[in-house]
Amino acid sequence: MSEAHAYAQTLGEEQSVWFKISPFLSAENPMEVLMRMSERRGGCFPVKLKSEKIFFLTDIEHIRHVLVDKVDNYKKYFEGLKPVFGKAMITIDGSLWQKIRKPQQPFFHPSVYEDYYPHLMTAVKSKISEWSDLAASGEEVEVLEQTWGLAADMACRALFDREMPFNPHAVFGAVKAYTDPENHKAIRAKKVSGDVNEVSDDEDAVQAISAWLSLPDAVTGAKPLSDREQTLLKMLEKAEADTEAPEFDHQQVLDEIKQYLWAGTETTALTLGWIFYLLSQHPEVTEKICREGEEVYGDREPTWEDIQKLTYTRAVMLETLRLYPPAWALMRTADEEDEIGGHKIAPGDKVVLSPYMVHHNAKYWDDPEKFDPSRFLPGSIKKRVKYSYLPFGAGKRFCLGGQLSQLETVLALTMLLRRFRLEYAGDGPAKFGASVMLTPKGGLPFKLHALS
Ligand code: HEM
Fold first, then answer.
1. Protein residue closest via CA to atom 36 of ligand 1
2. What distance in angstroms lies between residue 447's CA and the mean position of ligand 1's atoms?
3. For residue range 391-448, what is the model confidence (pLDDT) as tens digits?
4. How many CB atoms lie within 10 A of CB 425?
5. What's the rounded Cα separation, in Å, for the pair 292 and 309?
6. What CATH number does the domain containing 72 carry?
7. 262 C-alpha vs ligand 1 centroid, how far in Å?
8. H helices within 362-446, ranges in order?
């Protein structure tokens, strides 16, 4: 049985929490349903699903309890996503997690971002050239495909010293096919009705997983761009060869690469996509971003120092991450008995922590539905309640690439918006399709117009 085939058997498993909560997620506006439940039932509310209880947590005290105070009692829950991540750092716990994360941390320390900057700039310039052609053709584009390709190219160049060695359209379409639990339903239905015992090789799911599993080899096999001394990829390869680091076996290295190609790309892609969507309704904000660029770096290319000065552009990004946090739900499984908000938590119970619900809670944010970048301008940030802003998680499992993604997003925004006007071409307001990530249902179609 091929690796892709074996992974495909795990899709649509009854015990997958993603699969179990999919009835909520398929509602017209799943976030509204969850917000209403939270208002009615409090900051920790259980949902009983067959033999299992899932607790939704929306109060910052409970979130701190799980992510910080009792972090070792709440293990990562990644069932159903194994084909994407395997045993990568993001999925594991305890001393193994520490051993895997520690040597990779220096590649995400802010001190190295200045070295990454020219490589990020190259990726953005290549996107500008592609958009010039698209604008000239008048073609409608799916902006998330565009931003996903850009985010993947930035990650490949900065972290692996490679040009993106795959076609993002094909690959990310494939990933979506199995990170969206809705798509597992067909497989589940066939299994329940007894039509199939196992997923056959010609199912779309197997093809999708094969495409995904081929990526790490495509990255390692591609020609290095500049033979930089220190890259994350070189570190991983050295660790694999190091007999004193047995935890970094070949599979671990492949899985770490896959992790960056998804957790480090779809998130940034969605952030950019949601920003473009919000800006299409707030042209005055787009204007301010362009004006800030003009004032800080005029007609030349922005330098590393210039990017640090784009405080308004950065505030727009942070406010978008508040309204539309791509990782809208973080999942954990309780190891030992515990109590949260008066509810008894049994070993094996799942907890779902929702940055979305915290970000939209009037207890923590004034007028939470309003798009107001000024909340994040220097000075206002100090007034924020701790743990009320969680787009990158919190505690020791805080996102490793959060700062890199912020740099990528601000750079892409300032460069692209000064060259193109983006016209939203959707049929009515964007709707939520909450899968593992908070995605717009049916995508975000746009027309690109080159600015003279
Ligand atoms: C807007 C962009 C991003 C968002 C919203 C985001 C969000 C998150 C969140 C919420 C977590 C914690 C998950 C949990 O606690 O269950 C996380 C973990 C992680 N993220 Fe990000 N992320 C982004 C970009 C990136 C980038 C660019 C990279 C790397 C290139 C990255 C790599 C990781 C890794 C490796 C972890 C696992 C950390 C660990 O378990 O120790 N992320 N991310």
1. 399
2. 30
3. 999 999 999 999 999 999 999 999 999 999 999 999 999 998 877 889 998 899 999 9
4. 14
5. 9
6. 1.10.630.10
7. 10
8. 402-417
Q: Whose CA is nearest to atom 9 of ligand 1?
A: 392
Range of 113's domain?
3-450
A 10 A CB-CB count for 327 gives 22
- Would you state the structure tokens that stand for residue 60, as one six-digit string? 């910052």
Neighbours of 378 (CB within 10 A): 9
**pLDDT 10s digits, 64-103:** 999 999 999 999 988 767 777 889 999 999 999 999 999 9
Read off the DSSP letter of residue 352. E
* Number of domains within the chain: 1
Tokens at residue 299, please?
């007609």
264 CB less than 6 Å from ligand 1? yes
- Ligand 1 atom nearest 159 alpha carbon: 30
CB 433 within 8 A of CB 442: yes
Kindly state the tokens that stand for 400: 């490793």
The response to whether residue 330 sits with its C-beta less than 6 Å from ligand 1 reads: yes
Tokens of 276: 């473009």
Please state whether beta strands 52-57 and 350-353 pair in parallel, antiparallel, or not at all (unpaired).
parallel
